[in-house]
């Protein structure tokens, strides 16, 4: 914790030093954006934009998981499904998110659905690969044990398979969230009239560097909060059965 | 004579060749076997002789064989056995995400034991194995011996008619294994299951069994009755005597056939283990 604080302190110091050498229109110091951020929060419309962005992030994440987890499981379980799908997952992963965003907006219109679909489709391939790896690592001996005890399919799925894949799904969740944050602001910049990405682009057009940094700061803080508090806690609860590797 | 608990006729299991030029491997070569109710039978053989394949066939895990397996006079035609069968593996195979008690619950649920009986069954068998205090422990918190004991509780709780055991003590240190063997016999005398116990340890077989079947290259080569009265004592010279005879016989059979090494190399189980051990004494 101390080391973390120290590294944060150093980063701020570095930012401040850099800002002293550059004109404020290019790089203001860390103080000005923080004050602007505070003022924005006070003014009120920050939460509206943040809220709509978060909705897109989690909507996109849910849809991405709904697509990717079954695909990943199928690929891990069936040899032939793996052979058919693996190349398509690779293809889907190499297509830039810009292409997905543009295609979705053209096909589905400039609306919320298009945004969420674009976000989900961009993130899904990487999540699918993660889950696929997880399913391939399943312990067959435990399944054999369950079959020897006449467990039905549902019980094998919920008690034997899912707990083994869960760590990989969790990892995909964190990692998917990381990708999705970035895609979401990007999609908002292209085709939505609100959200953090829209605000960033708005201030960019007005060449207000302090505001751009203030919004970036806000976004980063919220993301860290979710990552460190919510996901860490979820992970702790889900995997309490695991032996601790380090104290 | 009453109907055998397990009746096996001409059981043959063939693995398809891995490469086109190889011959198909016959792992079990027309086995005949009849096991009486409440009998404790040990199948002795080195790794790769087909012991585990036989157990998997009886358990219904492997349905790809020819010949017949009848349990209580009813054929096992790719379906489930008409009686409840419990299987104890070489490793405990506990579910690491469930506590000791929940692991037992898993077997109770999957075997559809009415939940009204769960508490009573768990209390009984956890107490019998001395695991009562460890209900809330996760498998990684248990020692190897305790984990295997818990696997035994899981097997007993479903009140099986038949208990299949595949070298369940071979992964444990000798002292722990000894204690578990004694416990197993005590529990067996109380519950009287039909037991098919597979092992490569001649002393273990001599100590546990009513009857030892020696298996070499997928065939039963000898049958040795163990007429030592129960309860048995570890230091009973009669058991040592049987152990000595079994080992002698085993070596004779193994040497008379084609080179065992070639056979072991062809074994699909991929285990490595040397000649049957004389109990560690």
Largest inter-chain contact set: A-B, 18 and 25 residues
Task: List unreliable stretches of 5+ residues of chain B.
Answer: 260-281
Mind telling me the CATH class of the largest domain in chain B?
Answer: Alpha Beta
The CA-CA distance between the termini of chain A, in Å, is: 15 Å
Provide the succession of SSEs of chain A.
HHHHHHHHHH
Q: How is this structure best described in words?
A:
The complex is a heterodimer of chains A (247) and B (281). Chain A has helices spanning 2-21, 31-43, 45-77, 79-94, 97-108, 112-136, 140-148, 153-191, 196-205, 209-238. Chain A has 247 residues and is mostly helical. Chain A has a domain at 51-193: MetI-like fold (Orthogonal Bundle). With 281 residues, chain B is of the alpha/beta class. Chain B has two domains: 1-83 and 164-173 and 186-274, 3-Layer(aba) Sandwich (Rossmann fold), CATH 3.40.50; 94-160, no CATH class. Chain B is 35% helix and 22% strand. In chain B, the strands form two sheets. Chain B has a six-stranded mixed beta sheet with strand order 6-7-8-3-9-10, with helices on both faces. In chain B, helix 5 (174-191) links the parallel strand 7 and strand 8 (194-199). Classes of the chains: A mainly alpha (247), B alpha/beta (281).
């Amino acid at each position: 914790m101390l080391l973390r604080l120290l590294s944060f302190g150093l980063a701020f110091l570095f930012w401040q030093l850099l800002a002293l050498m550059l004109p404020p229109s290019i790089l203001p110091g860390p103080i000005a954006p923080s004050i602007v951020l505070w003022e924005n929060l006070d003014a009120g419309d920050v939460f509206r934009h943040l809220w709509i962005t978060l909705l897109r992030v989690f909507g996109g994440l849910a849809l991405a998981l709904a697509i990717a987890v079954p695909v990943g499981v199928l690929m891990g379980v069936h040899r032939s499904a793996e052979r058919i799908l693996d190349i398509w997952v690779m293809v889907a992963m190499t297509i830039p998110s810009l292409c997905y965003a543009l295609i979705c907006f053209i096909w589905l219109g400039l609306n919320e659905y298009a945004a969420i679909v674009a976000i989900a489709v961009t993130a899904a391939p990487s999540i699918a690969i993660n889950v696929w790896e997880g399913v391939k690592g399943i312990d067959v001996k435990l399944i054999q044990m369950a079959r020897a005890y006449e467990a039905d399919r549902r019980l094998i799925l919920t008690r034997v398979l899912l707990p083994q894949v869960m760590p990989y799904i969790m990892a995909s969740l964190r990692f998917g969230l990381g990708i999705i944050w970035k895609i979401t602001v990007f999609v908002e910049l292209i085709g939505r009239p609100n959200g953090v990405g829209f605000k960033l682009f708005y201030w960019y057009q007005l060449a207000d560097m302090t505001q751009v940094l203030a919004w970036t700061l806000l976004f980063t803080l919220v993301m860290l909060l979710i990552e460190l508090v919510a996901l860490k806690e979820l992970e702790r609860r889900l995997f309490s059965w695991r032996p601790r590797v380090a104290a | 004579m009453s109907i055998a608990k397990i009746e096996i006729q001409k059981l043959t299991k063939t693995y398809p060749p891995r490469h086109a030029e190889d011959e198909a491997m016959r792992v079990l070569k027309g086995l005949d076997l009849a096991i009486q109710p409440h009998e404790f039978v040990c199948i002795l053989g080195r790794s790769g002789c087909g012991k585990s394949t036989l157990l998997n066939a009886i358990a219904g895990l492997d349905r790809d064989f020819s010949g017949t397996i009848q349990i209580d006079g009813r054929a096992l035609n790719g379906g489930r056995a008409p009686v409840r069968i419990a299987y104890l593996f070489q490793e405990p195979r506990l579910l690491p995400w469930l506590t000791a008690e929940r692991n037992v619950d898993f077997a109770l649920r999957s075997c559809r034991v009415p939940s009204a009986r769960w508490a009573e069954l768990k209390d009984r068998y956890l107490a019998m194995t001395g695991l009562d205090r460890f209900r809330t422990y996760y498998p990684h918190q248990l020692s190897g011996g305790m984990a295997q004991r818990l696997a035994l509780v899981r097997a007993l709780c479903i009140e099986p008619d038949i208990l299949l055991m595949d070298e369940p003590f071979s992964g444990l240190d000798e002292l722990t294994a000894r204690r578990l063997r004694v416990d197993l016999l005590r529990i067996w005398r109380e519950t009287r299951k039909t037991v098919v116990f597979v092992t490569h340890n001649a002393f273990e077989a001599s100590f546990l069994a009513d009857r030892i079947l020696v298996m070499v290259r997928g065939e039963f080569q000898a049958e040795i009755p163990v007429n030592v009265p129960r309860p048995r004592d570890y230091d009973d010279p009669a058991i040592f005597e049987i152990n000595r005879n079994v080992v002698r016989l085993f070596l004779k059979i193994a040497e008379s056939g084609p080179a065992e090494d070639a056979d072991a190399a062809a074994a699909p189980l991929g285990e490595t283990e040397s000649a049957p051990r004389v109990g560690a004494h």
